């Protein structure tokens, strides 16, 4: 069965995008340079967590492999011989503030060399604004020897889905689309309309590129604001989540909630993409400051844990800390630029003995414990970094009975402390601080009277 569409790059975005197209009845060939990934995908194995309508992505993958709707290869040539559309999702990594355009440009060179007249190249990666006209289209033109916009179509439609909701959002979100020519835009819109029921918004290439980066940068700024509100709420001894809930009852206020930081491939990279697209970063001090605030959020969490431990007479140096959740956000197993991993590194640098557990993250770091019990056993502190749904069903009072008493819990969103209180643990009631020192009721003794909400 010939595929109509090739999805180039089968990562966190490309794989669910390819499978969402299959769900809509398209025949898709997926291409990735990573041989191991292609071998695993062919065997029906993926670690990408994108459940859809109660089915895991792995099960959706297997369904479409066996129906023949989806085929996976490392060979771009094999794909190029059968499709009329290439959808590209190869990203631009960022190291420090430096953007690495090489993987995407290498892909454009290889793809250009295989292009045939009439084909469409639709880029969905997030770009440094200006790249379509400066880098991508010239690269496709020189490698193919064809005239873009005349001999082949080329367009940009930034991908806007959030990890964890991708399968649904591919099919429902509005999409911004820009072609090199009107005919290119039209052709791209025809393809996108087969994927999404959302509205398609045609615009210029530069606006499309900027809109994606600005959407992410705006979230970075809003999250930085939430982190500052947390500090203000603590000073006023009020619960920051209650404060945000109240402020959000105003119809024109939409504050986000603070977490342990910001991670993943999208939001943290937005500033670097934007800064690389203009002559001087001095023009965007707000974005730069937001980045700094969010980058230092795990440091602030580590300082608070240190403070809480000192309150119960335990220095952070030598303390055993169990970190729960390593994904870059709640419900994610993506560890790229994860603030939870950053938090572990900071604690270890400060002398703590750290073990971490995340049921969704494959063994990768030396500090990962094989089980929740092994992670928590004999801990002086437990820090919830990111929450996984499997944690919902844990009998926390039983598990945390394995830790030492008193136990400091850094529990920003109060997911564990209320369950301990309900089980009869002594949990001081103040809720303006992210941490609490707790003791099991059974272990309570006059000596434990010093154990109260650390401040
Ligand atoms: N992750 C998100 O939540 C998200 C959301 C919206 C947009 N995006 C954007 O989507 C793009 C992809 O992000 P991702 O998270 O899927 O990245 P990823 O790193 O998970 O996936 C990229 C894939 O491309 C492959 N690849 C690299 N060079 C290739 C080549 N020459 N030919 C074929 N395959 C190649 C890699 O092996 C990898 O599997 C990025 O531009 C990102 O900014 C990501």
TrEMBL record:
Pfam families: UDPG_MGDP_dh, UDPG_MGDP_dh_C, UDPG_MGDP_dh_N. Coiled coil: none annotated. Gene3D superfamilies: NAD(P)-binding Rossmann-like Domain. Keywords: NAD, Oxidoreductase. GO terms for molecular function: NAD binding; oxidoreductase activity, acting on the CH-CH group of donors, NAD or NADP as acceptor; oxidoreductase activity, acting on the CH-OH group of donors, NAD or NADP as acceptor. GO terms for biological process: polysaccharide biosynthetic process. Residues 322-418 form the UDP-glucose/GDP-mannose dehydrogenase C-terminal domain. It comes from the Bacteria. NCBIfam families: NDP-sugDHase. Belongs to the UDP-glucose/GDP-mannose dehydrogenase family. This is UDP-N-acetyl-D-mannosaminuronic acid dehydrogenase. It comes from Alicyclobacillus vulcanalis.
């Amino acid at each position: 069965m010939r595929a109509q569409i090739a999805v180039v790059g089968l990562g966190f975005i490309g794989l669910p995008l390819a499978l969402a197209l299959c769900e809509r009845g398209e025949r898709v060939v997926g291409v990735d340079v990573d041989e191991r990934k292609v071998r695993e995908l062919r065997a029906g194995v993926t670690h990408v967590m994108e459940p859809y309508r109660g089915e895991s992505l792995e099960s959706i993958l297997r369904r479409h492999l066996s129906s023949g709707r989806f085929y996976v290869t490392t060979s771009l040539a094999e794909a190029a011989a059968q499709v009329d559309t290439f959808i590209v999702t190869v990203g631009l990594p960022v190291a420090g503030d430096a953007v690495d355009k090489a993987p995407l440009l290498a892909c454009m060179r290889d793809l250009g060399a295989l292009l045939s007249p009439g084909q469409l190249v639709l880029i969905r990666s997030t770009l440094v604004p200006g790249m379509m006209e400066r880098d991508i289209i010239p690269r496709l033109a020189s490698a193919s020897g064809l005239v873009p916009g005349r001999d082949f179509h080329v367009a940009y439609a930034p991908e806007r889905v959030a990890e964890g909701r991708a399968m649904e959002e591919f099919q429902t979100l509005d999409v911004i689309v820009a072609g090199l020519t009107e005919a290119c835009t039209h052709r791209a819109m025809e393809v996108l309309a087969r994927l999404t029921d959302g509205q398609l918004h045609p615009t210029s290439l530069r606006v499309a590129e900027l809109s994606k980066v600005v959407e992410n940068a705006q979230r970075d700024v809003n999250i930085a604001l939430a982190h500052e509100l947390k500090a203000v709420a603590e000073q006023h001894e009020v619960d920051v989540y209650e404060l945000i809930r109240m402020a959000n009852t105003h119809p024109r206020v939409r504050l986000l909630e603070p977490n342990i930081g910001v991670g993943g491939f999208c939001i943290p990279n937005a500033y670097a993409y934007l800064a690389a697209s203009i002559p001087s970063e001095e023009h965007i001090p707000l974005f730069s400051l937001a980045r700094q605030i969010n980058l230092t959020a795990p440091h602030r969490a580590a300082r608070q844990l240190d403070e809480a431990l000192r309150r119960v007479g335990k220095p952070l140096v030598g303390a055993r800390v169990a970190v729960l959740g390593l994904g870059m956000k709640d419900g994610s197993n993506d560890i790229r630029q994860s603030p939870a991993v950053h938090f572990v590194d900071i604690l270890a640098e400060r002398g703590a003995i750290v073990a971490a557990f995340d049921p969704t993250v494959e063994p990768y770091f030396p500090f990962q414990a094989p089980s929740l019990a092994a992670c928590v056993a004999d801990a002086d502190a437990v820090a919830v970094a990111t929450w996984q749904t499997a944690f919902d069903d844990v009998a926390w009072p039983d598990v945390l009975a394995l830790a030492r008493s008193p136990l400091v819990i850094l529990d920003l969103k109060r997911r564990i402390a209320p369950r301990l209180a309900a089980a009869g643990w002594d949990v001081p009631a103040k809720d303006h601080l992210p941490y609490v020192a707790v003791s099991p009721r059974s272990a309570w003794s006059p000596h434990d009277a010093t154990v109260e909400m650390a401040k």
